[in-house]
Amino acid sequence: MADSRTKFYLDKQDAKWAGVCSGIADYTGFDVTLVRVAMVVLTLASSGWLLIGYIATAWLAPKKPVGLYETPEDAKFWQGVRTNAHRSTTEVRSKFRDLDRRLADIETHYTSRNSQLAREIEELR
What we know:
The chain is an all-alpha fold. It has 7 helices and no strands.
């Protein structure tokens, strides 16, 4: 499933015509309006060659599977992985390092002798 989340898909749910611009926006994380404006400007600047590429992409690219992302945070994560995999692995390592440190603090708290807590428990008996 992770492999399918790093591929380019046509996004028919947010499509105006064929879903290419919304697919590019989903793939890169850019705003779909900016992608559409860039598409129009670049089509005019390239004398229409980009339109041929747009049509070919609409014909060749697969449609986005339903339920590809479970949450908006999931979509942001996979967009980050596609744009910079090294940064994403660094962020994941950092999160795991932070979780490991917090678990070590919890373990230290529960395994250390807490004399004040022991005294309070003894007073309750």
